[in-house]
Design a protein that fits this description.
- The structure is a single chain.
- This protein starts with 11 loop residues before the first helix and ends in a 6-residue tail after the last helix.
- 59% of the residues lie in helices and 11% in strands.
- Helix 3 (60-92) crosses helix 4 and helix 3 packs across helix 5 (146-165).
- The protein has helices at residues 12-26, 36-54, 60-92, 119-132, 146-165; strands at residues 34-35, 95-101, 106-112, 115-116.
- The strands form 2 sheets. The protein has a two-stranded parallel ribbon. Strands 2-3 form a two-stranded antiparallel sheet.
- It is mostly helical.
């Protein structure tokens, strides 16, 4: 999956998605709170906008085809990224996000110590985590080496376990 790792936060696409959350949500609140519902909505809109931009000018029925073909794949990755962020927060009591600032892209770590998450948000994330563990799922089958798939699967199951342990914490 990842360009250089097994987690969404180790993939180029995952880092792009996280960058969108940083720009549209976290900067506005000075990195104080990660709002899961807002992040899910933001990434849904960004994914749809990107599909529409990439297929500009095509007939509506073709655009519908492209949305139906690409949105589920991209949203799954977005949900896994958010699930990883939430699991990291639950494990450590904070989520560290690195922002690259200035002309020289100086790395600045921000420590987010507050998450807003509802039971519905958690359900969306858990459903995606369960879905990708199906051996017929494209993501499950996307690994060239079985050893990488096993590491990824252990990671996914670990994230799922942490989120399930905190179901009662969601609003």
């Amino acid at each position: 999956m990842g360009s250089w790792g097994i987690t969404m936060r180790q993939s180029d696409y995952g880092l792009d998605l996280l960058g969108s959350i940083v720009e549209a949500q976290l900067k506005k609140v000075e990195f104080s709170t990660f709002n899961v519902a807002e992040a899910i909505g933001l990434l849904r809109r960004d994914i749809l906008d990107e599909i529409k931009r990439a297929n500009q000018g095509c007939p509506p029925e073709k655009l519908d085809y492209y949305i139906n073909a690409n949105f589920p794949r991209d949203f799954t990755q977005a949900a896994l990224l958010i699930a990883e962020c939430l699991a990291d927060y639950y494990r450590a009591g904070e989520l560290t996000v690195t922002e690259y600032t200035g002309e020289d892209y100086t790395p600045v770590d921000h420590h987010i110590t507050n998450f807003m998450v509802t039971k519905d948000d958690l359900q969306i994330l858990l459903e995606e985590l369960c879905r990708v563990q199906d051996p017929a799922h494209w993501m499950y089958n996307g690994w060239f080496r079985d050893s990488d798939r096993k590491k990824w699967l252990a990671h996914i199951r670990s994230v799922q376990q942490v989120l399930e342990e905190h179901r009662g914490d969601a609003a």
